[in-house]
Write the structure tokens for this entry.
Amino acid sequence: MAHQQMPIWATEADIDEDVDLSLAIGNYGHGHFEDAPIQHPQLDETAMIAIQQHMAQQAAFSQIPDVVKAFIVRFHQAVLENNLEEITIAYESGWNKYTEKFYSRTEWPEAEIIAPLVNDDPIFLILYRELYYRHVYSRLQPNIDDRFHSYENSCELFNYLLNSDGPVKLELPEQWLWDIIDEFIYQYQVFCTWRSKVKNKTDDELVMLAEGGPVWSSYSVLNVLYSLMQKSKINEYIVATREGKSQEEIGEIVGEFGQRPLYRMLGYFSIIGLLRVHVLLGDFTLALKVMESVELNQKSPFTRVTACHVTTYYYVGFCYIMLRRYPDAIRTFVTILNFIMRMRQYHTRSYQYDQISKTADRMYALFAICNALSPSRLDDNIANIAKERFGEQYAKIARGGQEALSAFEELFLYACPKFITANPPPYEDNTAMTDLLAPADAADTAPPGYDATQRHLSLFLADIAAQLPVPTLRSFLKLYTSLDAKKLANFLDVDEEEMVQEMMVMKQASKSLSRVPGGGEITSLLDGRVITTSDLNFIIDENMVHITESTVGRRYAGWFIKNTERAQKIFDDLKHMPLPAPPASAANASSHRSTHPGAASGAIAASAATPAGTAKETTDAQAPAPRKVAWGGARA
Amino acid sequence: MDNTAASWITPPSRPELIENLVSGVDRYNPNNVGILEDYLYHQIRNEEYDCLANLAILKLYQFNPELYNPDVVINILIKALTASPLPDFNLCVSLLDERPVNAQLDEPDPLPTHLPILRGLNDLLFRCRFPAFWDIYRSDDLESLRDNYTVEVAGFDNAVRGVVVRAVKAAFTRISTARLGSYLALSGDDLAEYIAKLGWTIEPATSVVRVPPNPENQIEATVVQESIKLPQLAKVISHSVSKA
């Protein structure tokens, strides 16, 4: 790479002004850069700055290890050629490999530094910055410039995609497209959280926040997501696909943008992005409403990117909790947790494995919450894992009272999304800021109210507190078929009237809206009908309580189906195994094998389509064992 | 209340204009807040209720603090109270981002004082503490809430009674007149009239109210048997087909 330095220099000299300019007009308080050319129009000074910068860049450039330079060049080439396979390799392994090796604690070289390597390709530099900032956010501590610049870069990327005359030619792997949307929302969330903490901000930061304008504003984030959805006509696409329209018809409906996978997937991911943004902002109904056209099943396109799949279910499940639709939440979590468990063996190597398993842990906690509020036996396996992982909380909940409440609080705080406040504290208003900061000196907590999590937690806990006596009541009722209300109140040592009112709560808690599972027609996630969620039912006849219990008959089907499938699999595997050479006539058998190479390899590679003949021939030739003949014979 | 979510998502009384706002991107346009606020006052006068449309107002307030109108917020919360045990009230409060003391308002913001009161009332309704609800709601402390807000909400008392009726209907087959009266905050002729309007009957001898049978107060012990659906067997069947 060092040999190429001359031509690189040449190109670098050309763009120096560009670089300089972009630094100078970066409107984030680089006052002296801005002023210099205006107040002192001497060429010397600007030239000096340019030269200094040039030299600094050269120095930085020469610091880059050659392998990294080569990697960037190859990466760029792959993007230019829209070579998805190469891009995927560079994106999923190359980038992470060199991050581990050279940049685990420092930033990657800035885009301006590596620009000469990629002929200043503006698109690649935007993509590069996307990765650059993502690395800063995940491994390092972003400073305020990083926060503002990463926003700018995202805007540039989306502008490029949305405001070009026709669809851009760029192709990117689906995983990356998801990461772009995911990261965009993540950075927005981190920014809002950081912004809402008014203490410990430097004066510079306070000024920049006051003048920040639309940077990371909720409107601008929603705008991006909605624009991507509209540009790709994704909702129309989903509806048309569901209606079974032909490729041509769909192509016509979605237009030139929507036909391209890049736009279609970005549109799709934007819906999921909206789901997440609305949850972060505390709007749980709207979150589910934007998902209206998306089918929540394992065949949906969003399941192709596992991280997206997991995110979707997490947020949908959480919405259901806040809508007090615990059976729906349970079903959502069970589905995805089973999926994660099945896929675990493939994911341990993925660079996103950590993230996915963290989300899974949080979903076990949410499952524990739901299961306590609406006991069900949908999936004992998941229930056991949750119990194992959160045993302490399970025990506290079982004990009831204040302890149970604190266990719910722990689970909720551990597992809830990172809620944000839509609006900044009044950074632009000096007097309001002084007011805000003054009392905060006394108590070192954040000023009340700017913590959205506390607001959602208190609502949630109020719901829980209302239902706390239900389990105790239930355990008493379970012992009787009918019982005088006064007697029950005596057992519980509470006022009779209070207890009767509590029983109405219990009745309320034993039913819930629920989506109808497996009901052919497509319904939106908000839809549902009331179902009974408890196996214990009762009515009050003036002062007598009558109790009935529904029992579930023993279930056999699942066991038989599972074991039939298992037996079939073992059977298949057995059939496809090469037969062991009989120990007595080992030499004999090996000579057979060499004379029948086709038969042997046929047995090894036998697929479902392998004609019975091959296997049978092998059997006849090699295996005198009567068992093998038996299955060979069964087929004939 | 019917037993599906359909009329909650789209109340039959919702005009088309509002439907378009609620379901489209236009819901984010601050210029539409007036339309939605008018619709809220329409609901208040006509005993209608549209949770999603009201949430759309709160959403606009969330994003545009300068639109914030505390009276509207309080009215939305009052309407949401009587949707109990649905979570509407909580959904509304979830959208109320805290805001700095607003200097632009001419009068002190009434929300900070009213919000805890409303949350208390909501809690009592959700916990079916109906007698306590009426005691507190009618106490002197809540005079300001009654005189400035609920008095304008047509049929507020009856909407609360609607919550009571839903809870009683599910849990009781018979209930003493005194108990029902304490839940409804009615007595004497008013109570008798209300019960008659519900179509419930009072047993003359005992003066116990008979709640007509409905799916929720009819209980019977059942044994749930498993039912096997074809898709569960798909793997097993397809296996034997492909291997045959």
